[in-house]
Recover the amino acids of this structure.
């Protein structure tokens, strides 16, 4: 079985010398951080990106690879439409084929109540003139003629796309470096450089970098860094198991999901498989602090999350992970360069069986690479994209709730414009940080 292709054992690709000062420091080498650095560099800004491990080593490289507008929160739809256009532009500008393919996304109904949920989302599609439509049982059978399951129908968006995450995000990083971004892997941001209550840069393990603005795009690690500086956000991380199959005959070009299984065609000729609607939460201090905020989400899907008592050593919410540390010594980010959770072996066996049962003509499903990722989630299933009022000079773009890969280039462009003091060109009120403490009632996103 092949290991996940991006790990701490992989040679460092980006080892630029850090400047003493720049306009913006970006913390985090996932799709959000890389895209932010790219658009800042294109705007002529001096930008430095710090990644404690490897570009796309965590969830930005480990996700399903879907680039979808379907099922999104209404506030995300205009941003996702921009992202689809940016992906098409960027795929022509990077130095390798990222597998970008317009092949559609299908949400498959297991029962009539699923069709009702899908139908309830359709007004969002109509409001934005999307090509989304409801498929009948017969229409779906025509879309997937080899399927052995008798789904009642589906929600289908033909314009949605797919790409290969652990190819695409490193390619974007190389493009950003080519256009002037300073990128340094294997270099943790230990914390923020704060003077008189104002963020004036970052203190990294390789030294201080002064900057007018800092962007935090740390994914599962964002809450830990913020807590070190006295800011609490209700962000948790859940483990999601994924697998890659050996090359198989094509039964469907795009991505699809029902109540048991998610699958999508890969550029390599195999499929990415994952259990549908299943995550695992390691219970730690942050889980207990944030419990009340997550209660509505838990009640809406009480069986979708399995609870585990102890996170592995070094994980962001492990019981012994420090919440406070001196900035002149090693930080938790150096202790865990790449968050590489072990996949759930029972779920791996299950998804292989389920895929074979769904498409029996394919024969046995051989898994050639398996992995797991930690998805950073928020109580209302939408991210935070906002300035941090308690720390002037800091912008947070985090909590993508497993939806960050597809929308990443657009949120990167938006975050870059925020750092430049420009109008982000979208209504971001849904993503404001203050919603967790200003008395607002949290509204759950559709999370389809």
């Amino acid at each position: 079985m092949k290991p996940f292709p991006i790990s701490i054992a992989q040679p460092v690709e980006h080892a630029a010398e850090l400047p003493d000062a720049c306009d913006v420091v970006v913390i985090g080498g996932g799709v959000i951080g890389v895209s932010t650095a790219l658009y800042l560099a294109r705007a002529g800004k001096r930008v430095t990106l710090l990644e404690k491990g490897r570009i796309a080593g965590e969830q930005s490289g480990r996700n399903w690879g879907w680039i979808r507008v379907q099922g999104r929160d209404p506030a995300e739809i205009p941003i996702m439409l921009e992202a689809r256009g940016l992906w098409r532009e960027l795929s022509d500008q990077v130095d390798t084929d990222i597998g970008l393919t317009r092949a559609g996304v299908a949400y498959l109904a297991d029962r009539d109540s699923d069709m009702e949920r899908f139908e309830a989302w359709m007004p969002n599609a109509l409001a934005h003139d999307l090509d989304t439509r409801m498929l009948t049982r017969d229409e779906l059978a025509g879309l997937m003629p080899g399927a052995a399951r008798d789904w009642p129908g589906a929600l289908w968006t033909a314009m949605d796309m797919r790409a290969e995450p652990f190819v695409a995000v490193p390619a974007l990083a190389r493009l950003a470096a080519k256009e002037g971004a300073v990128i340094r892997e294997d270099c943790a941001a230990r914390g923020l450089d704060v003077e008189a209550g104002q963020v004036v840069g970052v203190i990294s393990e390789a030294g201080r970098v002064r900057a007018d603005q800092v962007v935090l795009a740390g994914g599962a690690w964002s809450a830990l860094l913020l807590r070190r500086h006295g800011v609490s956000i209700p962000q948790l991380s859940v483990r999601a198991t994924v697998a890659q199959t050996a090359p198989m005959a094509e039964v469907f070009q795009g991505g699809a999901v029902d109540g048991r299984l998610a699958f999508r065609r890969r550029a390599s000729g195999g499929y990415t498989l994952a259990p549908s609607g299943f995550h695992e939460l390691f219970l730690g201090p942050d889980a207990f602090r944030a419990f009340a905020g997550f209660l509505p989400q838990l009640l809406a899907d009480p069986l979708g999350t399995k609870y585990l008592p102890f996170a592995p050593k070094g994980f962001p919410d492990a019981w012994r992970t420090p919440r406070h540390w001196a900035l002149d010594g090693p930080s938790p980010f150096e202790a865990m360069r790449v968050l590489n959770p072990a996949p759930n072996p029972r779920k791996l066996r299950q998804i292989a069986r389920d895929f074979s049962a769904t498409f029996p003509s394919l024969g046995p499903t051989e898994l050639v690479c398996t992995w797991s990722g930690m998805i950073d989630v928020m109580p209302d299933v939408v991210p935070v994209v906002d300035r941090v009022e308690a720390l002037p000079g800091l912008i947070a773009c985090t909590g993508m709730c497993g939806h960050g890969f597809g929308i990443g280039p657009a949120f990167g462009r938006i975050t870059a414009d925020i750092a430049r003091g420009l109008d982000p060109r979208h209504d971001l009120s849904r993503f404001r940080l203050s919603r967790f403490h200003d008395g607002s009632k949290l509204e759950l996103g559709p999370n389809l």
The chain has two domains: 21-104+159-436, 105-158. DSSP finds twelve helices and 21 strands in the chain. The chain has a mean pLDDT of 96.
